[in-house]
């Protein structure tokens, strides 16, 4: 009986950890953004394409590859549209990792992070 209970508990735990792909329609969240640049430039992203720090791309944990999102820096109201092509951020408490070019347009290079609003946009 104990082994059955343990197996069921493990099954529920693993199911709760599974990654759920969310529907990008209506996605609208606020959180902390960071960026990555030269250290990763040219390396393969999770989507298979090379990372370009000069491109308008981003990493997100759940949004489907190819999803375009509008990211607004809530400290200065600057916005940029990026395409999700990687998985991350890998730091707890972060919502999105931006390319260096996108971070520069948002005015967050010096601080390294910024409170942002991320909204999925329709093509």
TrEMBL record:
Identify the SUPFAM superfamilies for this entry. Barwin-like endoglucanases (SSF50685)
GO CC terms, sorted:
plasma membrane
The compartments listed are: Cell membrane
Q: How does it sit in the membrane?
A: Lipid-anchor
Residue ranges occupied by any RlpA-like protein double-psi beta-barrel domain in the UniProt entry:
30-118
EC number(s) per entry: 4.2.2.-
The Gene Ontology biological process terms listed for this entry are: cell wall organization; peptidoglycan metabolic process
Keywords tagged on the record: Cell membrane, Cell wall biogenesis/degradation, Lipoprotein, Lyase, Membrane, Palmitate, Signal
Citing just one GO molecular function, the answer is: lytic endotransglycosylase activity
Give the CDD domains listed for this entry.
DPBB_RlpA-like (cd22268)
Q: Which domain of life is it from?
A: Bacteria
| Stretch forming the signal peptide | 1-20
Q: Which family does it belong to?
A: Belongs to the RlpA family.
Q: Which NCBIfam families match?
A: rlpA (TIGR00413)
PANTHER family recorded for this chain? ENDOLYTIC PEPTIDOGLYCAN TRANSGLYCOSYLASE RLPA (PTHR34183)
Q: What is this protein called?
A: Endolytic peptidoglycan transglycosylase RlpA
Please tell me the species this chain comes from. Pseudomonas chlororaphis
The gene name on file is rlpA
